[in-house]
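[recover] target loaded
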């Protein structure tokens, strides 16, 4: 069995919500462009909105279940909370409409994370309507995952048993980062690395219940490779580094999952060796061009994995993350 925990969609019927807002320019029956105001953000095709197309690709890749999350550019965290709540409701309802009657898709909702009460209310509404979990961005402006409001939301997710998929977004821009997709190639790993450290050093894992099921996208960014550096700093410069954490960073790696969107067996080995074979799940970033196809190819071809480890990573761990075991 193969479960892909990291895929995205954009509903084909996405409305125009006004100047400066993300919208969908329909170019043909099989081509569209995500727009942000008048700026082209990303071309997309039917894989992002058409279940039969997705199912055909899943059949080609041997994928049995697909977690389907929002595309982060639609989060709206920079907007007034009421507007972000409206966007979340529209996106979430259109997602359920798009995927209706397709049990191999597990929809994750989005929430107005800048307002914890509204975020909790939207999550509850979505879980009751048929969503299987929630995707959140890794920060809201300068507020990272140790922000009190975001911690309140994570505590609520633990209470209601909702799995949380954390996706980097809104990476810094500048002359050094706007070339060669450097925001995606360096900014995304750094953003995720920072947010994992934030949850550790900000004391979040010491506060939220261990029932919280959390997964970081893109192999937890650069965090696994630099965990030794974080531990070294925690011990040698604890006066600055320890923050609100009770233990060194390596003592928290059992508290979260990370997906396998790392593209290389050597990187996968670092990920598995660092987090443990029980904390790694297959992800692809389907259907976007920086994703992995065929899905799970690196895991299936990793000669260092035993059959038991491979089974955990391709299905067992994901089912635990989703609360299905």
């Amino acid at each position: 069995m193969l479960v892909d925990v990291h895929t995205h969609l954009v509903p084909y019927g996405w409305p125009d919500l006004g100047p400066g807002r993300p919208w969908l320019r329909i170019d043909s029956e099989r081509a569209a462009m995500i727009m942000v105001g008048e700026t082209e953000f990303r071309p997309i095709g039917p894989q992002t909105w058409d279940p039969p197309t997705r199912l055909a690709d899943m059949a080609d890749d041997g994928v049995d279940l697909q977690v389907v999350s929002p595309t982060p550019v639609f989060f709206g965290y920079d907007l007034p909370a009421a507007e972000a709540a409206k966007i979340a409701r529209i996106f979430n309802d259109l997602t359920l409409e798009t995927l209706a009657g397709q049990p191999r898709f597990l929809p994750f909702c989005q929430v107005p994370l800048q307002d914890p009460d509204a975020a909790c209310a939207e999550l509850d509404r979505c879980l009751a309507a048929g969503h299987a979990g929630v995707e959140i961005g890794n920060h809201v402006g300068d507020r990272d995952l140790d922000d009190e409001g975001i911690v309140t939301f994570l505590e609520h997710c633990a209470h209601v048993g909702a799995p949380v998929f954390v996706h980097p977004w809104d990476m810094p821009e500048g002359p050094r980062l706007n070339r060669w997709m450097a925001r995606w190639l360096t900014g995304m790993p750094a953003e995720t690395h920072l947010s994992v450290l934030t949850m550790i050093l900000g004391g979040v894992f010491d506060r939220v219940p261990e029932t919280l099921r959390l997964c970081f996208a893109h192999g937890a960014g650069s965090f696994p490779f630099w965990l030794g550096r974080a531990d070294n700093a925690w011990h040698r410069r604890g006066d600055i580094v320890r923050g609100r954490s009770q233990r060194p960073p390596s003592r928290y790696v059992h508290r979260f999952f990370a997906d396998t969107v790392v593209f290389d067996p050597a990187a996968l080995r670092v990920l598995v060796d660092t987090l443990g074979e029980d904390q790694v799940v297959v992800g692809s970033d389907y259907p976007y061009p920086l994703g992995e196809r065929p899905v799970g190819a690196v895991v299936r071809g990793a000669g260092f994995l035993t059959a038991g480890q491979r089974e955990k990573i391709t299905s067992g761990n994901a089912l635990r993350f989703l609360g299905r075991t």
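[recover] notes: The two ends are 14 Å apart (CA to CA).
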